[in-house]
Specification:
4 helices; 8 strands
Length: about 180
Amino acid sequence: MNRLQASKPPSLQASKPPSLQASRIILFSAINLIGFLLALFLFSLPANATPYADNGDGTVTDIVTGLTWMRCAMGQTWTGTTCTGDAASYTWDQANALTSNVPFAGYDDWRLPNIRELQTIVDRTIFDPPIDTTVFPNAPMSYFWSASAAASNLGYAWDVYFGYASGDIGYASGDIGNGGA
């Protein structure tokens, strides 16, 4: 008997129980469906559309992350249509202390975003600045602090430079950046 004759037909070969195979397929299909729907939603937006809801009070809510952002940098003023004035610079400690003491748009519980949250507003398809200036008008090409301390040195914290969208570790006592976007 040669090898071809000795092999079992595919229908008789040992396989995993059908219930295990089915659960993997369903889970895989559910994950694919969620990803597909999210991609469909994001790609169905017009090219100039953003995933932000304008709250009409100088803030926007990112409809993907659920985060609410001030449209102006600290030091700037929201006029109802744009941001005016110059952004202020803060040390990391000053920026952290400032955000919980600044009432804006009816809220007084503002905080610095962590580095991952801050990177969600970076638009890597544009530069000078790499942020949607329709949503964040007159955004300064500047460093912006995150609430994330550097694990390697507690004297440093993560920041994002909105000149070319780099993430960096900044010296926490230095006056770089801004209290928040």
